[in-house]
Amino acid sequence: MSELRVGVIGVGQRAPMAALANRPGVARVVSCADPDPRGRDDARSLFGPEVVLHERYEEMADDGLDAVFVLTPDHVHTRPALFFLAAGIPVFVEKPLAITVEDCDALLRAAYDSRSRLYVGHNLRHLPVLRRMRALIDDGAIGRVRAVWCRHFVGHGGDFYFKDWHAERANTTGLLLQKGAHDLDVIHWLAGGWSRSVVAQGALSVYGDNPRRGAGDPAPAGGRMPDWFDAGVWPPSALRDLNPVVDVEDISMMLTRLDNGVLASYQQCHFTPDYWRNYTVVGDEGRLENFGDGIDGDDATIQVWNRRRSGYRRDGDLTVPVATPSEGDHGGADRALVDEFLRFAAAGGPTETSPVAAREAVAAAVAATASLRSGGTPVDVPAPPAEVVDYFRRHQPARRPV
Predict the structure, then answer these.
(1) Collapsing DSSP states into helix, strand and coil, what is residue 67?
(2) Domain that holds residue 311
(3) Does 86 reside within a domain?
(4) pTM
(5) pLDDT digits (tens, 9 = 90+) for 344-373
(6) Distance, CA of 92 to CA of 338 (rounded, Å)
(7) Domain count of the chain?
(8) Which of 208, 270, 303, 394 is a Cys-bridge partner for 250, taking CB atoms 3.0 to 4.6 Å apart?
(9) How confident is residue 212, by pLDDT bands cut at 50, 70 and 90?
(10) Is residue 199 included in any domain, yes or no?
């Protein structure tokens, strides 16, 4: 099989992930598009001086591409993805798939109609600790799953999400979607179902009262989080140069009932001093949870409790250590994600990630955001069309001969 010619749309914060696609004899990034000169300069640094550069993604159509990465800000994922799906080119879309259910469904429908391959970058499905948790569940370590709880402590949330475009609803819908789509996908994956009814509460508790707005735009065109991140600033109220518009919640809590009867909860806070995720899965014969998530290359441990005892025990009846690769790519998850996409783009077949699952995570987050902004009103989550679900369940079969 010849070397895949790969394109990248949006050379920003997540572009180094696409550099993992440069594999001699397998794939090579040959074309990039970014309206920002900094993005185009970075493309040369990441992908080499021979990479073809464009301001507009439409100009990439003549570059003979075999696959593309869409790594733009969330609110501008849809148009370039639709453009290349219509052209029959396999598309990788960074998570979240989109910021509205309508755009997600449009992307699923476009892949279905064109029989083009669509892939979504939910890299946590490749995170070693979560894969081990899923394997323990599949092996029956806690019986049948009945509940999943996730607490996400976003310790650098002020720097990561309140100094640029993430702080505005128009660009994200809300952080329950933008940041939470990761976790909601994992909750669905561990529980084996999709959210169908949600309630939520949330607030802009800390950053909304911060008077230290930028005089102009604190994140000028091309500005990125590493330009301003400072781990030494504490407490969160001491942060300066927040985005001029801050209208997303910095703390959110949601409850959801899945279509298989599993109950789940998700809590997200952007002003904690620590930064990690904790998943607890409760079955009818035990429970398990992770201590550490391995995102930064640290090792993690899964504890399993499945014998009756009095009181709390930090160590479970089964302790499962999980070693994590030390590379700076989300504990090896980004590398595994790109490996899977390149294989899928070239040959098709089953994948650990799922465009339908990505859509379901967005749909749950959209419903939860609507609930919390209406004072906790219950909101139903619409299901995607059955024929589209079936198409992706069959691993996106190629276009049928006419």
Answers:
(1) strand
(2) 125-322
(3) no
(4) 0.95
(5) 999 999 999 999 999 999 999 999 999 999
(6) 9
(7) 1
(8) 270
(9) low
(10) yes
